[in-house]
Amino acid sequence: MNISDAQACAARLSGSSESPAADVELLLCHILECNRTFLFTRREHQLTAAQQTTFEQLLQRRIQGEPVAHLIGSRGFWTLDLEVNAATLIPRPDTECLVEKALELMPDSAARVLDLGTGTGAIALALASERRDWQLVAVDRVAEAVILAEINRQRIGLANVTVIQGSWFEPVTGVFNLIVSNPPYIDPDDPHLRQGDVRFEPLSALIAEDNGLADIRHIATQAREYLVKGGMLLFEHGYDQAAAVQQLLLQLNYSDIDSAQDYGGNDRITWAVWNSAPLQDSCGEEEKNRC
After folding, report:
1. How many other C-beta atoms are found inside a 10 Å radius of the C-beta of residue 227?
2. What is the DSSP string of 46-82?
3. Taking phi first (over 0 means left), then psi (-120 to 50 degrees means alpha), and beta for anything else, what does residue 15 get?
4. Distance CA 201, CA 196 (A)
5. DSSP for residue 118
6. Which of 22, 27, 59, 87 is the most buried (most CB within 10 A)?
7. Rounded to whole angstroms, what are the CA distances from 9 to 13, 48, 123, 136, 225?
8. pTM
9. Cα dist. 158→86, 162, 174 in Å?
10. How far is CA 52 from each of CA 4, 55, 63, 197, rounded to the nearest angstrom?
11. CB 4 within 8 A of CB 39
12. 131-140, 197-206, 278-287: range with highest mean pLDDT
């Protein structure tokens, strides 16, 4: 089997992948330890017997629906190549829209930034790679995710990110100029949970009660204690949740609330500004338990 023969196997993925040719290219680059240019300039290059066996095994797993990122152990995000595994969500291209918006909205100055539910570390590491003057704290409650995010941090060599374990704000101290999160936001009854790559990803990173809004509500409520005056809160959410998230933020006394679309034209990112002092600083001792 040569590279051209292997690429023709993309036809076998037509019923199980939205991008069969790209999937096969990624598998071949992984097996041959090459880039895509090699594939297109060396089509007659012969795979060894061992490489053919590995290719066939990975192709069969992809036919069964297993994500390519899990098969090759990595996924490109922003300008980074991130290690991935089954303990976390696979970074999606649409999440890059959150990174873009954060960089666009924040002033060109040093900042302290919190990434909640960091998973692979994708958002925090992308922001840190663009803004070396920012200090980022990346939090995840899952020990395996924390280990993975730290592996990615070390591979990329970013000293301005600290990865810690805990549930949302539980391990966090101090205040932040920006809080970002791509939290679970899918309703537990959503039929999409039984389709495509998400079947192989942890449900705890996908689903939330209250029509998918429970974790967003919790974060938005608690974030008021951790944002500086004028600090910004930025969410990724479901394609049909922008209006509900905006209303939630309005009820919590945030201002300057707006949303932006993802690459598919869906309202995917919503942000708001906290214009008061952090609640933990503005409450008296008797009021702190109610704030």
Report:
1. 25
2. BPPHHHHHHHHHHHHHHHTT--HHHHHTEEEETTEEE
3. alpha
4. 10
5. -
6. 27
7. 8, 17, 34, 43, 54
8. 0.88
9. 24, 9, 21
10. 13, 5, 16, 24
11. no
12. 131-140
Question: Tokens 């029509």 correspond to what residue?
Answer: 211
Nearest to 132 by CA among 111, 102, 101: 111
Question: Using one digit for the tens of pLDDT, what is the confidence trace for 245-256?
Answer: 999 999 999 999
User: How far, in whole angstroms, is CA 112 from its chain's centroid?
Assistant: 19
Q: 27: closest CA among 11, 46, 45, 51?
A: 51
Contacts of 189 (CB under 8 A, 6+ apart): none
- Contact (CB, 8 A) for 247 and 272: no
Within 8 A by CB and 6+ apart from 280, the residues are 225, 226, 288, 291
* Lookup: tokens for 71: 């098969």
The DSSP annotation for 146-158 comes to HHHHHHHHHHHT-
Write the CB contacts of 91 (distance below 8 Å, at least 6 apart in sequence).
Answer: 75, 77, 82, 84, 119, 120, 122
Rounded-to-integer distance, Cα 201 and Cα 206, Å: 8
